[in-house]
Amino acid sequence: MPAERYAAMFARLAERDELAFVPFFVLGDPSMEENLALISAAVEAGADGLELGLPFSDPIADGPAVQSAVTRALEAGTRISACWPLLRAVRNAHPTVPIGLLVYANLIVHAGVEAFVTQCAAAGVDSVVIPDAPSLEQAWFAEAFAKGGVALARILPPGADAARVQEVARSSAGYVYVTSRGGVTGADDTLQADSTAVISALQKEGAAPALLGFGIAQPTHVHAARAMGVAGAISGSAVVQRIGAHGTPAARRAAVVAFVREMKGATGPHPTANHPIAPRSANRA
After folding, report:
1. How far is CA 104 from the centre of its chain?
2. Percent helix, strand and coil across the chain, each rounded to 5?
3. For 96, 135, 206, 225, which has the most beta carbons within 10 A of its beta carbon?
4. Cα(119)–Cα(132) distance, integer angstroms
5. 3-17, 111-125, 131-145: which range is least confident on average?
6. Active site residue: 18, 48, 62, 126, which one?
7. Does the active-site annotation cover 18?
8. What integer is the mean pLDDT of 242-262?
9. 34 has catalytic annotation
10. Distance between CA 73 and CA 66 in Å, rounded?
11. How large a percentage of the chain has pLDDT more than 90?
12. Which one of the listed residues 48, 51, 167, 194 is annotated catalytic?
């Protein structure tokens, strides 16, 4: 069944009163071989789940850091056909870790939805996020993915209205990706919106657990996410920035491991934590 690994992860962490920490990597960044090593290093450092992106030439939901990671992957010769064996290698190395795949709709449609879902299932992918698919098409994708045994995780912004919350709660599986702001991904000093209301609304609708993303870059952001009521946090730009900022495999691995350990260490109870949420007037794309 779709999302079994997510359910097991969330249940295990709830018993320990911990949030999930889920780092994001672009597949093939900075090379296929090193990418697998970095992903495995993140899991060994404490990552509870993984969010992995297929490299795409027009990642419109992503900011400069992830765009740079995509460029590195493509310049290294990464092709979509090579990503499936890489995903299978990640699954074989980490059989119980939930694997989410972020993929733009064009890649799915080009492959054919049924064929794409079959490839996901064969590679051990648990969920897919499609950031650029219109809301009206997401329910159709969700049905197609569920038939193939893969969950479709929906994205929900902090200002979503009640109708959107209800629709996402009905069709999302595995988890709901709640963003800390509108616009694109990026590492910030402060979270730019309080998503407490939309997270509470999702819970009342019986939705899958929420993971907070977009701008998660510091332990205090994890503390803030916990205060909002989410089940975990996704960090992407801050991870790939560390890959881009170092010139050797050893340095890149050390930077990723240190970051994952620091962020995972913030996922438990922290009664004195501050909650750095910027005023809404400070929001930027």
Report:
1. 14
2. 50, 15, 40
3. 225
4. 20
5. 131-145
6. 62
7. no
8. 97
9. no
10. 10
11. 75
12. 51
